[in-house]
Design goal:
single chain; mainly alpha; 2 domains; 2 helices
Length: about 110
């Protein structure tokens, strides 16, 4: 009878091991499903964020060519201001340079 008890005990241990493996597989499948769901949710949030940014850019009404034209206009305005300033100060700069060149100190340094 002890042989039968040993066999029964081995069968019971095998059954318990099978159940443990099945539980582990189910738990792993559940973790994978949860990770997949979380990733899908995160992707959807990111997609919505990008869509909102895109809509914001579209609703601003300015295209790239509009922005480029505005930038060119601002740049031209700044260049004109620099040219006007240079023209206005040209006479003073020339006088100052002539004063420096014509007033050479001929005394040796001490």
């Amino acid at each position: 009878m002890s042989n039968q008890q040993g066999i029964d005990r081995l069968l019971q241990a095998e059954q318990e091991a099978t159940e443990t493996v099945q539980r582990a597989r189910k738990a792993k499948a559940a973790r994978i499903k949860q990770a997949r769901d979380e990733a899908a949710e995160e992707i959807n949030k990111y997609r919505q964020q990008l869509e909102m940014e895109y809509q914001k850019v579209q609703s601003s009404g300015m295209t790239i060519s509009d922005k480029s034209a505005r930038l060119n206009q601002e740049t031209e305005g700044q260049l004109m201001e620099i040219r006007r300033s240079a023209e206005a100060n040209r006479v003073n700069v020339v006088r100052q340079i002539l004063a420096w060149v014509s007033s050479v100190d001929t005394n040796p340094p001490k």
